[in-house]
Design goal:
The protein contains no helices and 11 strands. The chain has about 120 residues and is mainly β. The strands form 2 sheets. Strands 2, 4, 5, 6, 9, 10 and 11 form a 7-stranded mixed sheet that branches. It has a 4-stranded antiparallel sheet with strand order 1-3-8-7, with no helix packed on it. Strand 4 and strand 5 form a beta hairpin. The N and C termini lie far apart (about 35 Å).
């Protein structure tokens, strides 16, 4: 099982980015995934999660109304659309597979920097 995150970069406040997480090695459709982030000097925190059925989503209060999580089961890809970005959104963003059979699996992280 591998998770490959991409799409990070430098963006001005108020801008947008879309993160992608390409998943390989198992049946993507059935399982839940999430996005987490870690800013310098801070603990890793949950940003958003989506169930395998694509019915249930969760957002941290800090990103509600600005971020949207989605998945394309045909492409085995998880997305995080980030709009109205703020400097406090600056962090390394990680995708995560919630493994019901054992240890959760993390992607390698992608840097998002929001700065003018």
């Amino acid at each position: 099982v591998q998770l490959q995150a991409s799409g990070g970069g430098l963006v001005q406040p108020g801008g947008s980015l879309r993160l992608s997480c390409q998943v390989s090695g198992f049946h993507f459709d059935y399982y839940a995934f999430g996005w987490f982030r870690q800013a310098p000097g801070k603990e890793r925190e949950g940003v958003s999660c989506i169930s395998g059925s694509d019915v249930t989503t969760y957002y941290a209060d800090s990103v509600k109304g600005r971020f949207t999580i989605s998945r394309d089961n045909a492409k085995n890809t998880l997305y995080l659309q980030m709009n109205s970005l703020k400097p406090e959104d600056t962090a390394v963003y990680y995708c995560k597979y919630f493994n019901p059979y054992g240890n959760d699996i993390w992607g390698q992280g992608t840097q998002v920097t929001v700065s003018s």
